[in-house]
Design goal:
One of its GO terms (biological process) is carbohydrate derivative metabolic process. The chain is an alpha/beta fold. It folds into two domains: 162 residues, Rossmann fold; 138 residues, Glucose-6-phosphate isomerase like protein, domain 1 (Rossmann fold, 3-Layer(aba) Sandwich). It contains 14 helices and nine strands. The protein has a five-stranded parallel beta sheet, sandwiched between helices. The radius of gyration is 20 Å and the shape is globular.
Amino acid sequence: MINLDDLEAIKKFDPKEVLASTQQFPDQCQQAWDEASHSAFPKDYQPIYNIVVAGMGGSRFTPKTIKELFRDRIKEPYEIVEDYTLPAYVDGDTLVILSSYSGTTEEVISCGQDAVKRGAKLTGIIHGGPIADFLKQQDAPMYQFTPTHNPCGQPRIGAGYLLMGHLGLLKALQAIDIEESEVAQAIAHARLITAQSKEDMPTAQNPAKKLALALDNSHLFVITAEFLKGFGNGFANQLNETAKMISDPRVIPELNHHLIEGLARPATLPDSALFVFFRSQLYSQPVQRRFSVTKEVVEKQHIKTYDVQLTGTTRLAQVLEAYVLGGFTSFYLAMLHDSDPVAIPWVDYFKTQLKKEGI
């Protein structure tokens, strides 16, 4: 286990510049917003009666974050599909967004082909690859970004592009009303949290390093609610892939109806489990009360807990703050394990086996 204040050791275990990409998350957000929010769409893309996003992994938790964050402001039904086929209701009045950083995701390609058969309107958020080619063949407008601020090249470390790319497209499509000032303030707050979390900030003053040390070697239950539910899923994804740590995203109030009874077994659970509560003063009052009582119930069953108090003044600012903390924390956890934060050997093995089987 390395010392997180040992900058030379961190460089040794990060040859593919994951840290550099993590530090540029606010720049990713700014670039994606500036570009995607000014996207042009043909006149026949209005009206839209529902929106379906096809995406997997890092290209899924980002639109899910936007869906949960703005569930009270997105003007049309907005669904995320993580499968090979689209819902039966998709038709000519539906906008299908193909979300794929790599442009190679087979489930997303399948959904795109399904959308064409249904006569749906098509667009995408994409870096390149076969999906970008497919959209061009369909003469479909898209936001195709150049990931200038993601030198490591990993989609999950370039989440700012997908996150604010989705929000920008919704703005361009007039599916959401949001002011430039709200976005600017949120990104400014993300820059502040980034400065506090960088590798040259000592652990005693660094919220991400302290969080990594607190979470290490635990079975993590990531607890969020309301507008942070999408982030909870995204943080679990980052922990799984970057930190190589099992994580279980859960939401309040839904977990209060069953999960707290399941903590009795296995008997070894108190030895490994840790509930990480992402707290916000912007949650509704009933939900804030549930956080406090849930923590009490968990601790009474001898399960460890840890609170992360978000400080942004708007929901969007807190979501970006949470992603900054989540990105740095996942990276520092990988460093604590002397682990390559980029490598995903079991995902690669799985994909190789599928190809051998002709799938």
